[in-house]
Amino acid sequence: MDALNLLAEGFAGALTPMNLVWVVVGCLLGTAVGVLPGLGSSMAVALLLPMTFALDPTAAFILFAGVYFGGLFGDSTMAILMNTPGQGSAIASTFEGHRMAKDGRAPQALATAAIGAFVGGMVASVVVVFLAPRLADFSANFGPAEYFALALFAFVATSSVVSDSAVKGLLSLVLGLGIATIGIDAISGSERFTAGSPNLFDGISLVTVSVAVLALGEVLHVASRIRRDPAAHRFTFSGRPFLSRAELKEAAPAWIRGTAIGLPFGVVPVGGAEVPTFMAYDVERRIDRRRPNPMFGKGAIRGLAAPEAAGNATTGTAMGALLALGLPVSATAAIMLAAFQQYGLQPGPLLFDRAPDLVWALLASFFIAMVVLLVINLPFARHWAKLLLIPSQYLYAGIVVFCGLGIYATSGAVFDLLLLLALGLLGFMMRRHGVPVAPLLIGMVLGPLAETSLRDGLLSSNGDYTVFVTGPIPLVLYGLLLVVIALTVRSKIVNRARQDV
């Protein structure tokens, strides 16, 4: 009951006219910035940081929270409409969300994303208020062995199911792992695959890779085929900006599962919402493969609903981890940690005692931000979808321009534009030869985590590899991995037998 009383006091502070204005402004700014390819909530918070010193801390952090959550929806909007995710957390939404848009269901896809974000964010906010200490205890159980097992599970499971050819899936994964190793080794300080170029010493950004492979690669692929089949690239959509009862029934289980998957990852520091969104997508894909009429690859609403709910659930609990533990598990959370320090505050258990008014008003603003985003974005789904009615030559030319602007804005280096073009050609070749993109991106996201966990585990055990198969969590993950491989092999054998009949 103490939490409820404190939360009620927080609502009293967050619902003052000025703080409510800052929530709305933050949601609008976050959505607007998220729509631009290559930009996102982390950049918006960084740009706003020096501008908010005139505000009191409570108003400033309410604004930041609105930007944080709004940025996620903006990223998803462009991921669905243009196959151009603003940040890594929206990559998984492109796979089925963009297919829904191409199939004439762009408003329904955006509505699915908005409701999924609302469900995941609201549940996460409740969890943060009541169950943050237990989630913190759960994260303490993860060490190098657990992280390595999690990464290996994601590598093998995803590569084996996203493509009809396991060889092509593994090839894509190896490409992603190779790109992830480029740069200066953090432990030894040696150069790896930089060809002596100082521009590659810091490695290649995931944003650059995702924008190039997903967005620019798609543009090049469309450009190569548009004269052969121009009608295939003309978008149409129904005017219905809401979900039917059947669509709600289809999406609801995925929203629940995605939320459940995303909640723990806000506390487990694996780099943000990329991992849970991919896991949620993978879970729905596996469930779909058992159905009489599989929908994945054709615009499955569950393939969009689950990642959206997972992403916002992770973001909500990540804010709880930042406040309760001082643990930033994403780039935006890290910038907000710096903002706390600029105001002379240190996130952690003592923050609840030293600045309770700020903490509980901020927690209350999470609930308000979820409602504001739903009110802002759900009615406008139809209008966002009208972007697809722009003639193809102008639409895709605009995507290329925004891709270049977004990447240049993040680094200010011409080299990154050349890198964007090279990786875009790679994405084009992958599409041309049927090589899936998802394993490449998963290799980029989880490659550094797997490498660091492997090396830390070996250093702590004096080179004893058995450290990776001790403990209940790694054994459970490896067991699940064996089950996944067995089911995948069985499925391919059954499909091959049916084709031979």
Automatic annotation (TrEMBL):
Keyword check for Cytoplasm, yes or no: no
**Membrane-crossing residue ranges in chain numbering:** 20-39, 59-81, 109-132, 144-162, 169-188, 200-220, 321-340, 360-380, 387-407, 413-430, 437-454, 466-489
Judging by the UniProt lineage, the source's domain of life is Bacteria
What residues does the DUF112 domain cover? Answer: 20-441
Coiled coil start-end: none
**Assigned keywords, A-Z:** Membrane, Transmembrane, Transmembrane helix
Q: What is this protein called?
A: Tripartite tricarboxylate transporter TctA
Source organism per UniProt = Kocuria flava
